Amino acid sequence: MSDKISDKIYNPPAAAVQGAHVSGMAAYEALCKEAETDYAGYWARQARELLSWKQPFTQVLNESDAPFFKWFEDGRLNVSYNCLDRHVEAGRGERVAIIFEADDGSVTRVTYAELLARTAQLANALKARGVKKGDRVVIYMPMSVEGVVAMQACARIGATHSVVFGGFSAQSLRDRVQDAGAVMVLTANEQARGGKSLPLKAIVDDALADNSCPTIRSVIVYKRTGGQIAWVDGRDEWLHDAVAGQAASCEPEWVEAEHPLFLLYTSGSTGKPKGVQHSTGGYLLHAALTTKWTFDLKDSDIFWCTADIGWVTGHTYITYGPLALGGTEIVFEGIPTFPDAGRFWQMIQKHQVTIFYTAPTAIRSLIKAAETNEAVHPKNYDLSSLRLLGSVGEPINPAAWEWYHQHVGGGRCPIVDTFWQTETGGHMITPLPGATPLVPGSCTLPFPGITAAIVDETGNDVPNGQGGILVVKKPWPSMIRTIWGDPERFKKSYYPPELKGYYLAGDGAIRDADNGYFTITGRIDDVLNVSGHRMGTMEIESALVSCTDLVAEAAVVGRPDDTTGEAICAFVVLKRPRPSGDEAKAIAKQLRDWVAKEIGPIAKPKDIRFGDNLPKTRSGKIMRRLLRSVAKGESVTQDTSTLENPAILEQLGQAY
Ligand code: PRX
After folding, report:
1. Most C-beta atoms within 10 A of its C-beta, which of 113, 139, 354, 375?
2. From the CB of 443, is ligand 1 less than 6 Å away?
3. Which residue, among 356, 353, 424, 343, has the nearest Cα to 385 in the 3D structure?
4. Low-confidence stretches of the chain (pLDDT beneath 50)
5. What are the structural domains of the chain?
6. Which pLDDT value is given to residue 198?
7. What ipTM is given for this predicted complex?
8. Ligand 1 pocket check for 393: Cβ under 6 Å
9. 394 Cβ closer than 6 Å to some ligand 1 atom
10. Read out DSSP for 84-134?
11. Please, where are the H alpha helices in 482-536?
């Protein structure tokens, strides 16, 4: 597949323009102009129109303690009121909020009235167990209605949730619980994925073992399967017992707009994941506004975002955005390849999905599957309900874009290639489907009000056609507020002094010389993007060297991969003689299992290469650029004369 950005242009079809929330390029430009002319006024107007405030705000943006910006700070609101109650109060309680499809294909529909009652019951149960405003609650749950309810229930009482993806290990979970100082964990006995039952509660037990997380007072367990689990009396309680007898109404906690709605841990360029802190008012505003404009969500839509609630995409485009607008959405428990790789297409057909939002890595693997097994090709399914497609998490290569457009979208559905990050809370650079002409491989233009730009190392604008560093010049409502417990790291990571007070995204980008369209060229720091999952190279290196019996030294780099976008490649020096053949294979497996245990299976290196030592300059610096060439299988063209031991290049050529 070619990575060249396509020079094809797809104008929005008339059907997409007509009746769109943002209809036509002139409407897009008018919004941008409004934001440019009166920045605070523009965001204030959106916040008043889209959100319900208990106490209206009078202040919009407070920059006095930059870069710790505050939005709508004297306003009060509640996120779960905005996502649930207000629709019920408007007489829309019988509308379906969630169509849940389980791994085994069984379907449950939940109305807004039911979702509200379940949220209120759990909120009351949390309160009864002493959880109060400002407490942190860790959610380690499968894709489920209960997971969404757990998040909404925390929001209802002003507790700050921190969802940990169910694929993270006990060690990763423990780190997050400890860093957040959480008082409670909500989990399930097991999760059902791909026809298998996978443990969750056992991992929680492991994470909390030996009193390693003394702040945790209780563990509430959703009974998803019949699987048996260990039980800690006095700490553990079934979810169904906890909510039994709780009232189905609960007065929302009206919190300040800046109150932390959630923390979400993500990888940075140093070893320790950082707890990205999001606000209540500004975050919810952008979640709702982007759902409305980027997905053009209407009452007649069936919206499906395939992300997991453990990632930011699941937060913004499952739990918060679509519900804030009173939409109807799919929540899917399973995986795209079970019972076969036609599952997504089959579900689109079955539920008459109109808007479908997924990741390039899923598309690429389903292309491969369809190429090898004709039966799972989308052409075998009726996908005519679709009107809009979306992509997120990593660059979508033009070949995958074209396939998605033609075979899934039937050539008629615009594709919104949405660039954003855990830190940005919602879409930053994205087409609007009824306005923006599309170019495959480009995320096109900034969302109205987002001041994305490309600058050099000193913060000066670079001309279009010339690559540089992606920044956002002005603060925006849904931006990260701080890194939990580490404001200095927040400043250092996102507001380096040389960038004139601009937000540093961590990505490189280039704008087209003719139309100014943005194309993301990839991370400029030590962060990898594997199947749309963010991984720090140092995080994986730390995990490898913590295998102290075996590993003396490790360096991790990324290399391009046709399916996963990037693949993890680890260079390892062992504390024993360099292995080869079957022994090397066995040790590589052992190291992958170790990394899975330390971080989670998503962090397993695809390639492991062993050397007597690592290529270093005479001053002792690991030559990472050289390792990246080796990982790609390129012939090394760099100057190796400063290498301490040039012979190891040959050793590292072999991947296990
Ligand atoms: O490198 C960019 C890439 O994903 C990173 C953010 O990862 P995360 O915080 O996990 O959030 C992913 C879901 C929003 C970015 O720094 N990225 C995300 N979307 C795109 C992208 N790269 C290119 N095109 C995109 N549409």
Report:
1. 139
2. yes
3. 353
4. 1-3
5. 38-291 (3.40.50.12780), 531-652 (3.30.300.30)
6. 95
7. 0.99
8. yes
9. yes
10. IIHHIIIIITTSEEEEEE-TTS-EEEEEHHHHHHHHHHHHHHHHHTT--TT
11. 487-494
Question: Is 403:440 a contact under the CB 8 Å cutoff?
Answer: no
- What does the DSSP assignment read for 249-287? ------EETTS--EEEEE--SSSS-EEEEE-SHHHHHHH
Q: Which pLDDT does position 5 carry in this prediction?
A: 64
Per-residue pLDDT at 643: 75
Rounded-to-integer distance, Cα 419 and Cα 480, Å: 16
Residues across the chain = 656
Over residues 499-532, the pLDDT tens digits come to 999 999 999 999 999 999 999 998 999 899 999 8
Q: Ligand 1: does its nearest atom lie under 6 Å from the Cβ of 395?
A: yes
Number of neighbouring beta carbons within 10 Å of residue 90: 11
CA angle 129, 134, 139 (to 5 degrees): 65
Q: Identify the CA nearest to 512 among candidates 410, 426, 405, 439.
A: 439
Query: What per-residue confidence (pLDDT) applies to 618?
Result: 78
Ligand 1 mean position, distance from CA 442 (Å)? 13
Residue 271 in tokens: 């070893």
Is 545 labelled a binding residue?
A: yes
Helices (H), 380-427: 398-403
d(CA 200, CA 192): 10
Number of other residues whose CB lies within 10 A of the CB of residue 37: 9
Ligand 1, atom 10, residue with closest C-alpha: 534
For 221-245, give one letter per residue: b (16+ CB within 10 A) or e. bbbbbebebeeeeeebbebeebbee
Q: Is 420 in the pocket of ligand 1 (CB under 6 A)?
A: yes
Residues sharing a CB contact under 8 Å with residue 211, sequence separation 6 or more, in sequence order: none
Q: How many CB atoms lie within 10 A of CB 400?
A: 22
Condensed to tens digits (0 to 9), the pLDDT of residues 58-96 reads 999 999 999 999 999 999 999 999 999 999 999 999 999
Name the DSSP class of 445.
Answer: S
pTM of the model: 0.95
Give, as one character, the DSSP assignment of residue 642.
Answer: T
